[in-house]
Amino acid sequence: MTRTVRGANVLITGAAAGMGRMYAELAVEEAAASVVLWDRDAAALARVADELGEKSRGRTGIRSYVVDVSDLGGIAKTAQKTRKEVGTPDILFNNAGIVRGNAYFWESDSGDDTRPTMQVNALAPMYIAREFLPGMIALGRPSRIVNIASAAGTLGNPRMAVYAASKAALIGWSDSLRIELEQAGHDHVKVVTVTPSYISTGMFAGARGPMLTPILEPEVVVERVWQAMLDGRPLVELPASVRLARILRAVLPTRVFDRVVGDGMGVYRSMERFTGRPAQPPVA
């Protein structure tokens, strides 16, 4: 892939706000052929599409689709419409995600919390990639699938058990898909797995960054992820302490890790004051 996305078709889920919108803005700045926006929030999606259209000045085609990615049927229908109206994406950002509650697992409402979290964070990226991957393979040109996971998927953390489970599933699938594509000789399609710690987008309002793990600014994350996408880098860990924690988890006995990293560095207390957004918008 060249050093920009000029001339490429870019699809972004969760594109109506936050970092999804920022990825879309970068794609427009680099004169992508088309930027396809998926989100559930129709009003916000329409605003973003209009603003990006004005910014692109006709250089980039902006298409928006209202879709709830927790709905398998909705994904299939929207993917079919996208292929018909725009074509196969060269770059897919599986960016949409949700986090629910600040309670221990047994205190949460399993129906309201577990099912949508797993559907949006873990299953939707798989379904969406499955819709477009055959076309990306067949095109034979450099392509990317960028899966936005979380550091929470690399180690357990109290008060976010289901979220951690959903991101662990995403990480496992994402890296397995990368290896499958390489083994099958389809290495023009590269998979990038992203595991950031807390980001100051409002999604994790109230969460505290553990020792050596500051709350990340979204602009920094987007810039790093964008560069990794262009490079086709397999894994993006932000900040560096995420990798350190993963290494310590592998080498330390469980109880030692709990004391040194979990309690000592504050990882296990990071969600105690979590509030999230005051009124979260509909799920992308």
UniProtKB/TrEMBL annotation:
Source organism of the structure: Agromyces archimandritae
SUPFAM superfamilies noted in UniProt: NAD(P)-binding Rossmann-fold domains (SSF51735)
The protein's name: SDR family NAD(P)-dependent oxidoreductase
Keyword hit for Oxidoreductase: yes
GO molecular function, a single term: oxidoreductase activity, acting on the CH-OH group of donors, NAD or NADP as acceptor
UniProt keyword list: Oxidoreductase
Family (UniProt): Belongs to the short-chain dehydrogenases/reductases (SDR) family.
